[in-house]
Design goal:
The complex is a heterodimer of chains A (251) and B (240). Helix content of chain A is 29%, strand content 14%. Chain A is an alpha+beta fold. Chain A has 2 domains: 195 residues, Alpha-Beta Plaits; 49 residues. In chain B, helix 4 crosses helix 6 and helix 9 packs across helix 10. The longest helix of chain B has 30 residues. The structure holds protoporphyrin IX containing FE (HEM) and iron/sulfur cluster (2 copies).
Chain lengths: 251, 240
C-alpha cells in the first residue's frame, strides 16, 4: 500500500507558474479554474533592493483526516486506501457542494460543465501514475521545487527529504488538523492563509437534527408495534377472534 | 356461514398498491445503501458496504435507485392522468376528516391495540368505536403521509437527479438530500404501523385479504367501516 505525498522546497520556487499551466493542459481544467496554485507573501517595498517575496506552490493536500470526505454523505468523495489519494467518484456524486465548503484550503471547485467537484488527484485520473510518470506539475517544475513520491517507501525522494530536513505544513485555523500530506521543507510563507474547517449547513442539519429525529420516529413506531404485537400474543380480546372467523378464505 | 362479499378494491388499485410496496422496499434499501458516511447512516457503515458489493459499486446503486424512482413516480403520474376521477375520489376520501370523532377514534384505537378492552374501561371509555367510512382514521393518516411524503420524495429526488445534469447551484441538491431523507424516515415510521395493522394484527386481517381478492365480507364492512357499509347498502337499494 502506497501513501503518496508531496514535499516542496518553496524557497526555490520562482513563480513561473509552469506547474499551473501544465496541470491545466494535462487535466483539461476549464477556463478560469485551477487545480493548483502559487501563493505568495506581500512584499515589503520599504526594504528597497532587499525586498523579497516568498512563493509557495500548493494544491489539494490529500489529507489523512480529510474533512471533504467527512462532509460527503454518499462516499462519492473518498480516500483511496491503496495510495492515499482523495478521489471524486463523478458517477456517484450528486453535486451537492458539501465537500467544496468543507475543505479549509479551498482546494476544490465546482466544475462548470460536469457540475461535480474537481481538484488535484496527483494526476491519477489522467493516467500518468499508472504509466510511471510523475504528476504534470512535478514533471514540469524547472527548479524542482515540487517533489512527489510514496511515503511508505523509505527510499523514495519524499521519504529521504523528510528524513534529512525539518518540514512544516500549512494547517487549518480553528483547531481541526486535516493532517495534510503536503510538506514544505525547512520553512515556508505565507502560512496563515488556510481557513477554518466549516461543515455546510445541509450536512450539519442532517447529522445533528434530521438523523436523530428519524431514528427517534422510527424507534417510537417500532416500540408501538412491539407493544401491540405483545398484546395480541399474550392477552388477545375475545371479540377479535370472532372477526377472524368471518375472514374470507377462512370459513 | 357463507357471508355476502362486498367489492372494495379494483384490480388496478390492487396492482398499484403492491407495485408501490415493492418499489418502496427496493428504493428504501438502495437509498439507505447510498448513505456511505458513517456519521449519517442510521444502521451503520456495513449496510452501504454490503449494498455496494451487491450492486458492483456506489454508482450502480445510485443508477438503480434513480431510475427505479423515476419508474415509480412515472407509474403514479400515469395513474393520476388516466384515472382522474378515481384519484380525486381517493384524495377526497383520505383528506376528509371529522376532527372530534376521529381523534376519539385514534385515542380509543391506541388503547384498544395496546391494552385491550380493559384499557378502554380503565380510562372510562366505552368499547364501541366512532363509526368509520371507507378508510378509518388511522388508514387516512397513513395515506395522507404517503401522498404528501411521496410528492416531497419525488420532487427532492428529481432535484438531486437533475443537479449534475442541468443545475448551476449546489444548494438545492444539498438540501433536497436532507429533506428526502427526513421524509422517507417519517413515512417509514408510519409504514411500520401500517404493516403491523394490515398484515399482522387480527383486527384488520380481512382488509389485508382484500388487497389480494378485492372483496371484504359484509360482516367486516358493517363492523369496521359502518359509514361505508351504509353507503354501499343505500346504493345497492337504489340499484334494486
Ligand atoms: C419510495 C420512494 C423512495 C425512497 C424510499 C427513497 C429512499 C432514499 C434514501 C433512504 C436515500 C438516502 C438518503 C439521502 O441521501 O437523502 C435516497 C437518496 C436519493 N434518492 Fe431516493 N428514494 C425514493 C425515491 C426517489 C426518487 C423518485 C428519486 C428520483 C430520481 C430519488 C433519487 C435519489 C437520489 C438522487 C438520492 C441521493 C443519493 C446520494 O446521496 O448521493 N429517490 N433515497
Ligand atoms: S486539501 Fe481539501 S480537498 Fe484535499 S483532501 Fe484535504 S480537505 Fe480534502
Ligand atoms: S459534491 Fe456532494 S456528493 Fe459530490 S463529492 Fe462533494 S459532498 Fe460528495
Amino acid at each position: 500500500m502506497k501513501k503518496y505525498a508531496m514535499v516542496i522546497d518553496s524557497s526555490v520556487c520562482i513563480d513561473c507558474k509552469a506547474c499551473m499551466a501544465s496541470c491545466k493542459v494535462q487535466n483539461n481544467v476549464p477556463r478560469g479554474y485551477w487545480r493548483n496554485w502559487i501563493k505568495h507573501t506581500i512584499p515589503d517595498f520599504s526594504k528597497g533592493p532587499l525586498t523579497r517575496t516568498h512563493f509557495q506552490p500548493g494544491g489539494c493536500m490529500q489529507c489523512d483526516n480529510p474533512t471533504c470526505v467527512q462532509a460527503c454523505p454518499s462516499g462519492a468523495t473518498y480516500k483511496d486506501p491503496q495510495n492515499g489519494i482523495v478521489h471524486v467518484n463523478e458517477a456517484l456524486c450528486i453535486g451537492c457542494g458539501n465537500c467544496i465548503k468543507a475543505c479549509p484550503y479551498d482546494a476544490r471547485f465546482r466544475h462548470p460543465d460536469k457540475r461535480v467537484p474537481d481538484k488535484c488527484d496527483f494526476c491519477f485520473s489522467s493516467g500518468r501514475l499508472e504509466r510511471g510518470l510523475l504528476p504534470a506539475c512535478v514533471d514540469t517544475c524547472p527548479t524542482k521545487a515540487r517533489v512527489f513520491g510514496d511515503l511508505s517507501d523509505p527510499d523514495s525522494d519524499v521519504s529521504r527529504l523528510l528524513r534529512d530536513k525539518p518540514a512544516v505544513r500549512v494547517l487549518a485555523k480553528g483547531g481541526i488538523d486535516t493532517k495534510p500530506n503536503m510538506y514544505y521543507v525547512a520553512a515556508t510563507a505565507p502560512t496563515d492563509w488556510a481557513g477554518e474547517v466549516e461543515f455546510p449547513g445541509a450536512f450539519t442539519v442532517m447529522a445533528t437534527l434530521v438523523n436523530p429525529v428519524v431514528k427517534v420516529a422510527v424507534g417510537l413506531s417500532a416500540l408501538g408495534v412491539a407493544v401491540m404485537w405483545a398484546k395480541q400474543i399474550f392477552s388477545p380480546d375475545k371479540e377479535e377472534s370472532e372477526h377472524e372467523s368471518s375472514a374470507p378464505g377462512k370459513d | 356461514m357463507n357471508e355476502r362479499m362486498i367489492h372494495r378494491h379494483t384490480r388496478l388499485s390492487i396492482f398499484m398498491h403492491w407495485f408501490n410496496a415493492f418499489c418502496w422496499f427496493a428504493l428504501l434499501l438502495t437509498g439507505l445503501g447510498l448513505i456511505k458516511n458513517e456519521q449519517l447512516n442510521p444502521v451503520g457503515a456495513w449496510f452501504p458496504s454490503l449494498m455496494r458489493s451487491l450492486f458492483g459499486g456506489g454508482e450502480n446503486l445510485l443508477m438503480v435507485h434513480q431510475y427505479l424512482g423515476l419508474i415509480w413516480a412515472g407509474a403514479f403520474l400515469a395513474y393520476v392522468l388516466f384515472k382522474r376521477r378515481e384519484t380525486w375520489a381517493f384524495l377526497k376520501e383520505v383528506f376528509t376528516v371529522s376532527p372530534a370523532s376521529d381523534m376519539l377514534w385514534l385515542v380509543k384505537m391506541n388503547l384498544k391495540m395496546t391494552m385491550g378492552r380493559k384499557g378502554l374501561q380503565r380510562f372510562g371509555l366505552t368499547p364501541d368505536m366512532p363509526p368509520q367510512g371507507f378508510y378509518n382514521f388511522g388508514q387516512k393518516l397513513f395515506a395522507q403521509a404517503s401522498v404528501v411524503g411521496g410528492v416531497v420524495i419525488v420532487v427532492t429526488g428529481l432535484v438531486m437527479f437533475f443537479s449534475t445534469i442541468s443545475m448551476d447551484n449546489p444548494g438545492p441538491a444539498a438540501w433536497s438530500r436532507v429533506i428526502h431523507y427526513l421524509t422517507v424516515g417519517v413515512v417509514f415510521a408510519g409504514l411500520l404501523v401500517h404493516i403491523f395493522m394490515a398484515a399482522i394484527s387480527r383486527e384488520e386481517r380481512p382488509a389485508f385479504m382484500s388487497m389480494f381478492t378485492g372483496n371484504v365480507s359484509e360482516h367486516y364492512a358493517r363492523h369496521h367501516h359502518p359509514l361505508w357499509h351504509a353507503q354501499v347498502a343505500t346504493e345497492k337499494d337504489k340499484d334494486d
